[in-house]
Amino acid sequence: MTKIYLDHAATTPVHPAVSATYIETLESVFGNPSSIHSFGREARKWLDDARKTLAQSIHAEPSEIIFTSGGTEADNTAVFGTVMAMKVKGNHIITTNIEHHAVLNPCKQLELLGFEVTYLEVDDNGQITVEQVQKALTDKTVLISIMYGNNEVGTIQPIREIGALLKEHQAVFHTDAVQAYGIVPLHVDELGVDLLSVSAHKLNGPKGIGFLYQRKGLDTTPVLFGGEQERKRRAGTENIPAIVAFSEAVLIAQQAMEQNTVNYSNYATIMTDVFNQQDVTYEMNVKSAEKLPHIMNVSFPGTDIESLLVNLDMAGIAVSSGSACTAGSLDPSHVLTAMFGKGSSKLRNSVRFSFGLGLTEETIKEAAQLTAEIVKRSVK
């Protein structure tokens, strides 16, 4: 049985060139970049070069990149670090009700500490408006955290327009770009963001490494305390092999981005064409909003998601019903709940297909045909 991986929004296979870079660096660059001897200086050179590459990928300066253990730490640093640094200016936070839990759960924790959080509600495309942000703003607002592109349905938010709105406001603007980084071009100045989170394992890099972009001049309180690494903003010896491999993954992603966008759009078309040919009843869960090209969230009326996922897995098709971070939970997707309401049948019959490295038109067609067969068998 051929296995077809269609869950790239959860995590991605490591690119062979990235694996080779990781192993080579792991074996040859073991010095601590804080050490002044030759081994330390060599490690520092690799660290600095990787930081430059990653900064250039979002049109930032190297000093604005803070290495983290991944997207969750980057989000937590952005949220907690900002509000603690800004608490003398206010205690109000604005976010959305479809953020990743790496933002939502810190916000819930801050509510327990006395902060006020406004959760903007999305429409049935999973999108908010600039007007909603403007209406929610107060003179006590210190942080606005709105994801660039949603990890479950792919909807892209009006980040650039929100950034323009906040230009004269004291609030710090953070965007979780974990799902978008390496998929679409990002330019921090054009977006008007102060903080931006990314993670390597979403773009064929290793797990356990990411970064937080922090605009020059912005003060945040560290979340980790210890040494003076990362300009005293994130303590802990830097993971040089993972960082260097991360930079290699970014270079590859940038070179392939344009062609990947074309490929992913084509894959989505192939899948829906097969569904139509096989007379499968389905509905796209994002109908009229700009979205990330690699994510396709589909509702199959009359099916049950648990049995559907099991049958797809038995057929060798790896997909998901939502965020990988909550895949073990029986609770329905908070994203789909926000979009369609608690009583919607879509909460129990929606599948996320997500595309990436290693797929071809042939494997996509095979996956679509198998999916169509399983859906038709599963309809009650």
Keywords:
single chain, 380 residues, alpha/beta, Aspartate Aminotransferase, domain 1, Aspartate Aminotransferase, domain 2, three-stranded antiparallel sheet, 12 helices, 12 strands, 41% helix
Account of the 3D structure:
- The strands form three sheets. The protein has a seven-stranded mixed beta sheet, with helices on both faces. The protein has a three-stranded antiparallel beta sheet with strand order 9-10-12, with no helix packed on it. Strands 1-11 form a two-stranded parallel ribbon.
- It has 380 residues and is of the alpha/beta class.
- It folds into two domains: 4-12 and 256-378, Aspartate Aminotransferase, domain 1 (Alpha-Beta Complex); 16-251, Aspartate Aminotransferase, domain 2 (3-Layer(aba) Sandwich), CATH 3.40.640.10.
- It is globular, with a radius of gyration of 21 Å.
- The chain is built from twelve helices and twelve strands.
- The model has no long low-confidence stretch (mean pLDDT 96).
- The protein starts with a strand and ends with a helix.
- Helix 4 (101-112) links the parallel strand 3 (92-96) and strand 4 (116-120).
- It has helices at 16-28, 38-57, 71-86, 101-112, 130-136, 159-165, 188-191, 229-232, 240-277, 305-314, 334-340, 361-378; strands at 4-5, 65-68, 92-96, 116-120, 141-145, 172-176, 195-199, 210-214, 283-284, 295-299, 317-318, 350-354.
